[in-house]
Design goal:
Helix content is 62%, strand content 0%. It contains eleven helices and no strands.
């Protein structure tokens, strides 16, 4: 078995309408989450980022304004909000809101105040959608009609707390995927359609997705097909090489072939390391000595970058 496989699979058909994200709750005596905005100067914030954000980059591309200095809402602004909110639990909501406000301070007025107002409204939306989703209960096995109803409620909630331009900028891609998933569920559950008719209807439904999402799905399918081809042609390297070149083109096929060789080499070294690691862990060494021995063992099998990967894999073993 691979330590960390290359390929990815096709997304599931039935999904919750609202994408999983951090849940915002009322805290610190605030009447509402938006009350936490405009209090950054009074909130102590650690110099270091939360551990889960260490070594990452703050999203950029969000500080856009028009010629009058008004904020232009973009998906990147929501990404900025979610980047910090993803660390909720490591820091309080107050502290994370203060971090977001600090990032927004690079804007000039009126964009700065508009961005803060958007942040407050977004926090209110997050609380409201969390409460709405709790009222839904179980989400698996929903029919297309019920998914459509829930999607409409969530879309209305977004446009209750956010103006139309901001809601569209923040959620257009999510909502396009939701519509596609609902249509996909309708098509695949329609017993009056033949397999060929379903395939054609799915192609038409997918054509309505924004181009980046459509291309991402195509890439996902291609690599899922590649994983299947690798399994089926495992004993025929020449046939697999021909398949790669036909599907991906010569340059990409060469890169995949190199990755394949690198993955196999990694798998061999990982297995050798894992065997020695397991013997070491069962040797009865005290914790400090065992940790030092593990570090020496990793250093003997892997380079510096690979040691980070090996340590991460060990942590989820």
């Amino acid at each position: 078995m691979r330590a960390d496989p290359i390929g990815v699979g096709e997304p599931v058909t039935s999904v919750p309408v609202e994408k999983p994200s951090i849940s915002v709750t009322q805290e610190d005596g605030a009447a509402a989450p938006s009350d936490l905005v405009n209090r950054a100067s009074s909130i102590p914030v650690p110099d270091q980022l939360p551990d889960s954000l260490a070594g990452t980059s703050i999203p950029d591309g969000w500080a856009r304004t028009d010629r009058l200095g008004n904020l232009i809402p973009t998906p990147h602004l929501r990404q900025l909000f979610e980047y910090f909110l993803s660390a909720l639990g490591e820091e309080s909501l107050q502290q994370l809101v203060a971090r977001i406000e600090s990032a927004l301070s690079v804007l000039d007025e009126p964009a700065r105040s508009q961005a803060r107002a958007t942040l407050g409204n977004y926090l209110e939306y997050k609380l409201a959608v969390s409460e709405l989703e709790q009222s839904y209960g179980e989400v698996s096995g929903l029919g297309a009609g019920e998914m459509q109803r829930r999607m409409a409620e969530i879309q209305a909630l977004r446009r209750t707390w956010l103006d139309a331009d901001t809601a569209d900028a923040f959620f257009a891609d999510d909502e396009a995927v939701d519509r596609f998933q609902i249509e996909k569920l309708r098509i695949t559950s329609d017993d009056s359609l033949t397999d060929e008719q379903k395939a054609e209807a799915l192609r038409q439904a997918e054509s309505s997705l924004p181009e980046p999402l459509r291309k991402a799905r195509e890439e996902t399918r291609r690599f899922a097909d590649y994983e299947q081809a690798r399994r089926e042609l495992a004993d025929d390297p020449q046939a697999l090489a021909a398949w790669r070149q036909e599907v991906f083109g010569e340059a990409a096929a060469d890169r995949l072939a190199r990755l394949e060789l690198e993955q196999k080499a990694w798998d061999r070294r990982w297995q050798a390391y894992a065997d020695e690691r397991d013997r070491l862990l069962s040797s009865g060494l005290a914790e400090p000595e065992r940790q030092e021995a593990l570090e020496r063992l990793r250093a003997s099998h892997f380079n510096e970058t690979e040691r980070i990967r090996a340590e991460a894999l060990d942590s989820i073993r």
